[in-house]
Amino acid sequence: MKIYVINGPNLNMLGIREPDKYGKVGYAELLEMINKHCAENGIEAMLYQSNHEGDLVDKIQEAYFDSADGIVINPGAYTHTSIALLDALSAVKIPTVEVHISKVEEREDFRQVSYIRAACKKTITGHGVGGYIEAIDFLKEYCNES
Ligand code: DQA
Q: Is the full-model pTM beyond 0.85?
């Protein structure tokens, strides 16, 4: 089983950016956590982060051509603006989980819209970096069932 974990803008600043909202775990530590969890579960993980919308579209398309079984995506602020990411996820039809570290539903109005949600099997918010692990576990179960 192969899962792409895709992070959008400013998520490389985890641990530095607004720790009251996003916690103290740094991006490198998050990657370690994901790699360890995937290795323990026999999952091949492809980890990617970009601050650029088009690069995120390219990575979603790459997941298709690379026959990925699932995508975990935290598109950061592009969640609330990007029809291009919605279109990319709709095009590839790979089971996808949307993850947000913070509880976006309790934050500003402009964070209440998620363009990508329509193309996702599940959304996890407010569980900190643990949300990524939950998303991977969900995809593992989902793929084993289907
Ligand atoms: C975020 C929430 C977004 O609104 C914000 O722009 C981010 C991070 C989260 O993980 O909680 O960059 O996706």
A: yes
The DSSP output letter for 16 is T
Q: Please say if 22 is a catalytic residue.
A: yes
pLDDT tens for 41-61 read: 999 999 999 999 999 999 999
The residue whose CA is least distant from atom 13 of ligand 1 is 76
Contact residues of ligand 1, CB 6 A cut-off: 10, 74, 76-77, 79, 100-102, 104, 111
The token duo for 127 is 């569980």
- Cα of 76 vs centre of ligand 1, distance in Å, is 4
Distance from C-alpha of 39 to C-alpha of 17, rounded to nearest angstrom: 28
Q: What DSSP designation does 145 have?
A: H
d(CA 92, CA 23): 32
- Distance (angstroms) between ligand 1 centre and the Cα of 100 equals 6
